[in-house]
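User: Hi! I'm a student and our assignment asks us to look at how structure tokens line up with a sequence. Could you show me two examples?

Assistant: Happy to help. In each example below, the sequence comes first and the structure tokens follow. Example one:
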Amino acid sequence: MTLNKGVVMKIINETKERAIVLKNNRVEIYVNQENILDIDMFHLHAILNKLSEDKNVFVRMRAASNKYATINVLEKLSIDQSFSVRYAVALNLNTPKHILENLIKSDEEAIKLAAKRMLCKRMR
């Protein structure tokens, strides 16, 4: 897929058929060069907040791993009942230091190690 890259934008994910673009603080999704979704960051954050409350663990995992998840969403999901959701929070590059420090106190070794690794990455 070829998009006009002259506009201030960042291509987040692109294949031949689809592209997810961050442009002027909006998220746009294109399928076969047709814009099928154009959403501002405020609404994206609201959607991620709603997804973080979903009963499906896989939906919450995706919200926890999303790079646009807010601190509130990450805080909520860092204490989720599901190991997989908490682990996704620990692996999210945008999880704040204070949340990672709390995850280091986890009883689950994998979550503890993931949080420690993320903190070490930030110190480099």
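Example two works the same way, sequence first and then tokens:
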Amino acid sequence: MTPTEQDLVTTAGGRPLTMLPAPLVALPAALFMLLVVATAWLAFAGAFHQARGADPAHLAQTALEGKSGVRVVRVAVTGAGGLVQLSYQVVDPGKAAAVHDPKARPALVDQETGRVVNRLFMGHMPHGPVNAGVTYYMVFENYDHAIQRGRPVTVELGGGRLEDVAVR
């Protein structure tokens, strides 16, 4: 009598070892791989956010948010160069009210020439209550093309300043 395959595979106690179905063998391996990938992703994401937090531009934007309650989204030359649009998102509505204070006029300063643009197109100033997460804008008159695409500007808004903003 020849031994069968089942007779050859036995436990230490002499009982036959039964084979597990393939899906039950693959499940722990798949869970282990998922754990490895998730751990690597979390480590990468944490390193990315730490590096971003150390970025001077990010720190300056955070300082402006803390002071004025807004985040600068974009500064763009429009209207054939005769206008500049400043877009900003409200982070803290209570602090953002200072942005709309007529006494604290917003301004854009060209960092290369020092020229200041602070006259709003048609006197337009956002008014009324602002809402968190909403993006608002101001349009400045850009006399003599003082602000130009590609050059850095300093944004003065709500009592705060943000330097090195690229103009689009």
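Here is something you could point out in your write-up. The chain is about 30% helix and 25% strand.
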